[in-house]
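Submission checklist for the structure archive. All mandatory fields must be present; incomplete records are returned to the submitter.

[x] Identifier: RNA-binding Zn-ribbon protein involved in translation (DUF1610 family)
[x] Organism: Streptomyces iranensis
[x] Residue count: 74
[x] Sequence attached
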Amino acid sequence: MNNYTCTHCGTVGLAEGFIEDAGEHSRGYARWIEGAMERGFFGGAKRTGRPRRQIVAFRCPKCGHLELFAAEEV
């Protein structure tokens, strides 16, 4: 158990997890990409050359609120 506090209800001790990305060609986890989203020629997000970080999530066991953090670079 950790000492993280829910910013919604104040409960101490959040459950660690992650946000799954199950889309086509996914790595299995969601990523945060720096900068405003820009669309490429085919409509997808431009992300070449931008820093990327894995998203880690903590869930409050009382109210279910999620706290998301951009962790280490991937």
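[x] Structure attached
Curator remark: The chain has one domain: 15-73. The first strand starts at residue 15 and ends at 18.
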